[in-house]
User: What shape does this take?
Amino acid sequence: MSDLSFRSLADLARACKTLRPDDDITRRNIAALLGIAAPLDVGPEAALQPAGRDRHIRVADQGRAEVKAWEEPLPTTPGPSLRNAPMPEGREIPAVLTPDPTAWHIPDWLDRVLPLAKPPAVPIPPPLPDSLFRPEWTRAILSGSLSRPGYGGLDLDILAREVARRQPLLRLPRLPVPTLVHGVQILVDRGERMLPFAVDQTQLVEQIRTVAGRESVEVLFFDGFPGHGAGVGSRRLWRPYPEDSAPRRGAVVAVLTDLGAGAPVLWSRSGGSAEWLELAQRLGRLGSPLVVFMPYRPELAPADLRRAMTLLHWDRRTGAGDVRRALGRARHLQEAAHP
Amino acid sequence: MGYRPLFDPPPAVPAIASGPGDRRDGGVYAYTPQILLAVNVALATGRPLLVRGPSGGGKSSLARNAARVLGWRYYERVISSRAQAQDLLWEIDHLRRLQDAQLNLLRGGAGSYVQPGILWWAFDRASARHQAERSLGSDEPRPLDPNLGDDHPRAVVLLDEIDKADPDVPNNLLVPLGSLTFQVEEYGKVATTEELAPLVVITTNDERELPPAFLRRCVELVIEVPDLARLDEIGRLHLPQVPQRLRKRFAELILETLPGGAAPSPSIAEYLDTVKACHRLGVEPDTPGWADLIKVTVWKHGRTGKTAG
Assistant: This one.
């Protein structure tokens, strides 16, 4: 019922009344275009011609003549049929079922199936697992969450309104233009809780580099909480953060962590809420907002953290609208905390 | 079998000449039965036609060609990240109002400075023209209807790449597109009738999700990656001067691109560019220049294929 209620049945009725489809396949495809039903899995040219036109199925690359669609009915007997063998007279034996060889039906499409391609000379690496964000939305999510307001052109509407009201212009109104020019510092949690997401972290780092520009992205690693030490290479070389590895002024700090919300592990170095809060405040004073990409629902994070930083659910269902809401909520709460 | 079409273009005639860049004039279009049905359903229901599919696949040119076939007016707007829904309906020229105020030449309230957007022109040309004239000074040239198509009471509107817009934009278009009416501050109501309703074509590359409420009000067409026969047909229509063997060779080359990689599959636009470049530069298949040419036109973005160098 949810599918049916998703689109308007009235549209379907109107389309059918106007276009007068005279077969079920066309009706089904009209419903599919309106989101009410799944399209019928038949060759599109088999049914969707306007009335009055000759209808053909073109068989590509087979050197065959065009075949009239209605001359080739779909198989009605998918497998061998069984029929009763004649009952011997005077004996009570159960019926023996024997296959009827004339009922075997090899579908016509079978001889049009092309053989599998030969494997390439150079082996192709196995595909990466699906990213946690929907691939086609990833760019919009990352550019939306990691950009900061930049200086655009003059906002002529506001300028004209203020001048018309004879208000003094204390600052020139600018159009808000989001920009990634300030760069991004990525903090990757290599703690045990995040081990299941190690490949996803690598993928997301690459995607951020693609969106923000390789030279504008700095990557540091930490275990559980960056304040205990962060850096690159061996953990022994990690240094206190942010003292020794502060982000560039204005750069957004993207943290790939679960904030301790994942399954408990034997040994965890996750920071407590107070530590994360203090870190967010310190970065805020440096002009760098904190954006956390969590593989779990942000509701699992402590409430005070949700108020202090932007938490994004690193998940397929997250879209640009969620990013906007999360950024707006964080900004609103921060303004309320520091009016 | 079939249906009674409202939109039934004649068989496409190959283009006489091909221009540079993307062909947006809608001169030729290779319709499939699915595309035809989608346009017909959009016309029958009065709903916007949302066209999904990879870039360079013929989403935008569909609207222009449909306008040509129907003989309707045609308006288009490429949506940017800064576009707002109101820009498509109307705008107030604050700067002109300020200037007039400074010169003591004010022509009335803010309503005199309202300029109609493309949906206003598409919904009700007469009131849009009246408002455009009202918003212009007497010393200025006459307003130009942004119509790019024929002169007809009805119009086709293309809202291109709506996924680039702020997530609020589709939601703010729900009422104008759903009820074919909208309210203009300082003016009043702009509305159209079912008989004069425009065909609104909206394209998306799916870079952002669209709100369910918006999707609910659209007829949705997905333009799939073409097969060999369709690519060859598109090549024949757009580049009839190119020998068929060359077009087919390139079509096969495009289709052998291995799917699943990070790089997007080659588009129809790239196919046409490649064929055009090859023909104009006189590069023949399997000559020394051939491999270099396909490297810069097809095997880019890290794409791979059987013949990739």
Residues 201 and 207 of chain A are 10 Å apart (CA to CA).
